[in-house]
Amino acid sequence: METKTSESSVAPDNRTAEEEPSDGLMEYNTKLDPAAPPGAFIEPMPQEWTEITTEFFDCVKELQLGELIHDNMFGLFEAMSAIEMMDPKMDAGMCCNKEATPLTFQTAVETNCIKLVNLSAPEAIGIIDAVFSCTVSWLEGHSMAQTVLTCLYLHYPQKIEDRSLKAFACAILKMLSLIRNFIMWARVYEEEDFQLSTYGYDLCKDLTEAKACNMLKSAEEDLVKKAKDTEDEKEREAINALICRLKFTRLLLQCLVALYPEKNVSPTKTEMIDIVKTLNGALELTQLIEKTIELGTQPEPGSDTPNSMGFSMMVNQRLLPPTFPRYTRIKDRSVCIQYLAEFIQRLKHACKIVHCHDFHSALNFFMDFCKKFSPCLLSRSILQTLYFPGHCVVFGTKKLTEVLKESAKAFIAPPVLLPDNPLFTNPAACNCVDSFFAYNEHIFSVLFELRGYNRARQRDKLAYELSSFANLQDEAERVDAYLHSLSMKHENPRQHLACFGTWVLYHCLRSMSFFLLSGLELELYSVHEYLYIFWYLYQFIFGWIVSALTRADAFLMEQDNIPEPKGSAKGNQKKPKVKKRKGKSDGKEIIFNQAMQNMCGGYYKALGGFIGEDRIPEPLAMFDNEKVRFEHRFAPFAALSTPPPMGYSDFKLMKSYLLKSPPEELYASAAKHFHEARSLLESYPNPDEEWHEIVKVAKMNFVMMNLLASGLNRQSKTQPEFDFSYHRYFPIIKQKK
Fold this sequence. Notes:
two-stranded antiparallel ribbon; 6 strands; globular
C-alpha cells in the first residue's frame, strides 16, 4: 500500500507487487529546475520515494477510536472518495491475484478452457443455470459487465458449434436487449436500481427475436430425438432437464416480445390471454428446473465464479468506469430460479391492467401491485409500458385527458360533463374544461409514474408532487367558479360548486395519506414520533377523505334525482326505468377509509396512554427539538391550502388535552376504535385480502387495549412493542417481556 500524486492514483490493470514498492507507505517526489522559464519543456527527474510508514502509524496512535482527521483540503467527501491502493475492493486496477491475466474468449479457446462443441448435458445445464443467476444479479442493480457478460460464451455466440448452447446464448442476449428496452421505455429507475450500460456489446442486434426462438425450438427437437435414442437413464434425465431450460427461455422470450408495445399500442385482451397461457407454461417449467439444478456442473467451493467452465469474472475489468467497483456476488442458483418464478407471477398479475378502463381503478391497480408483490424493477417497468405504451395514450385508443374526464364524471358527475346539461354544449364551458385537463394532464400521469419507482423513491418524489397539487387546487376552484357563473344564466340551473375541486382534493388527500403511511413501512419514524403521525391521519387526513367521498356520493344522488324541466320533450314522455347510478362501489371506499380512520384513532389513543404512563422513552432534551421534527415530517403539506396544514401549536394543544385523560380511559377508547374498525370491515361482503389483514390486527389490538384498560399487564410498566410483520402500516401492539 502506497501514496502517490494524483497523476498515478490508479495503478495499471496488470501491475504486480514486484513492479512497485508495497512494503510500506511511500511518498513520491519529483525534482524540477526552479530556473526554468514558464511553459518550457521540463524533463522529469528520476522518481524518488520516501518511507513514511513509521510517521504514519505514529500519527495514527494519537487518534482516539472513531476520530477522523479533518483538513481544509481533505474533508469527509475526499475521504470517502479516496482509493486505497492495492486493496481488492477499492482499487479497480488491482488484479486480486486471482487472474493475473484475465481469461478472454480467444485465450479460453486456445487453452481448451471452454468447449465449443460436444458439450455434455450436465455441462450445458451448469452454464445455463449460471447465466440465469447472473441475469438475476444484473436485474438487482449490478453492472452487466460484472454479471451476465462474465460468461465468455455470450461474447461470440456465433462461434459456438453446439446447437443447444448457441441457441440459448443468442436468446439470452436478445432477452437482455428487450429487458433493457423495457426499463428505458418506462424510465422509472434510479442509479441504485439498474445499470443500463452494455459496455460496447451489441447483444446480437443483427438477429431477430423470432429467429432466436426458432433456434431454440430446433435445438429442443434435436434433444427430444436424442433423449429417445439414449438408453442410460441418468443421461436421459439430464437431457430432459436441458430441454426444460431451453423451452423456459423460449417461452419467456416470446412473452417479453408479445408484451413489448408495437407502434405505441399495447396487446389486446385476446393477445393477453395467450400471453398468460404462455406464462403459465413457463411457470410450470421453473419447478422442474429447480428440482434438476444438481444435474448440472456446480461452481467450485469458495470461488466467486458462477460455474467451473465458461466464465471469467475479471474479463471486463478494464471496461469499468474509474469509480469504486461495486463488489458483485452472484446469487445462488435455487434462489434465482425462485426469483424468476415470482417474476412470472408478477407479470401475470400485471397483464390484468387491460381490464382497468378508468383512471380510478387503474391507479388503485398500480398501488395494489406495489403493495402486494414488492415488485422488481422489470415487472414495474412492464406494467408502466402496458398502461402507457406511447407515454401519452392509454391502450392506444383514449387520450389521458378523456380518461380523466370520465374519472371526474364517475366520481362526482360535474354538470358540464353530462350530455343533458346546457353547459355540455356551451363552447366557453367546454373550452374551459378542456384547457383545465390538458394543462394539468402531466400531474395525474406522474401519479402513475411514481408507482414504478422503488418504495423509498416513491415517497421522495411524492413530496415534490404535492407542491403541484397546490396550483391544481387553485385552478380547479377557478374552473368551478366560472362554470357555476355560466350555469346560473340558464333556466333551472344545476349548481356547479366545488365539483372539480372535490375531485382534485380527493386525489390530493390520498397522496398525503400514502406519504405518511409509507414512512411507517420504510421505518422512518421513531416510536416517540408515532403520536403526531397517527394524530394527523386520524384527525385530518382520513376525516377529509371520508368527507370528500360523502360529498361526491351526495352530489351523484342529487344528479340522479333532478326532475326533467316541464314542457320539454323528455318531460312529456313517460320516463323509462333505468338502473340507478351507484356511488363508488356501493360505499366500499367510504367504509374502508372510515375503518382506516378508526385504526389511526386507536393508535393515537393507545400512544397517549403509553406516554401518560411514561412507557415510551423520549430522546434526551439536549438532542431533541420536537417542533423541528414535527415541521420536518409534515413539510410537504405546507404548500397546500386545502386541507389547511396543521401546525405544531395545534398538535401541542391536542396533546395536552389528550394527556389530561387517565391512561385507562385512553386504553378503553382505543379499544372502541379498534372494535369499530373491525366491525366496519367485517360488515362489507367479499372483502379484499388487505381487509382481512387489518381485521386481524384490529382484533389483537382490541384484546390488548381491553387488558390494559382493566389494569392487567400494567404493573410492570414495560415499553410496548410495535410488530409490523402482519401489516405494513398498522402494527400489532405487544408487551415487551
